[in-house]
Specification:
mainly alpha; 79 residues; 0% strand; 77% helix
């Protein structure tokens, strides 16, 4: 019985630790997204390098998503 309780406690501690790590990762990602949303909402186009980089990344990701969704990923894309 004592071994069973020990194993249950160990399992619950492992689960709590995994959840805490997941939550910390989610918090970090939410912070990153909020920073990028702030840059994307700025009307100051091209004057700040970070804004240009984020807007370029968003454009690239949108184009990539369209190509993958349409099945065009089998063809070669020349840019």
């Amino acid at each position: 019985m004592l071994i069973y309780l020990h194993n249950m406690l160990y399992y619950r501690l492992e689960q709590a630790f995994a959840f805490r790590q997941f939550s910390a990762g989610v918090d970090e990602e939410e912070t990153w997204i909020q920073e990028k949303e702030h840059l994307l909402s700025a009307s100051d186009f091209g004057n700040v390098l970070a804004i240009v980089q984020v807007k370029s990344l968003v454009s690239f990701c949108s184009l990539y998503a369209i190509l993958v969704y349409s099945g065009a990923n089998k063809t070669r894309l020349y840019v």
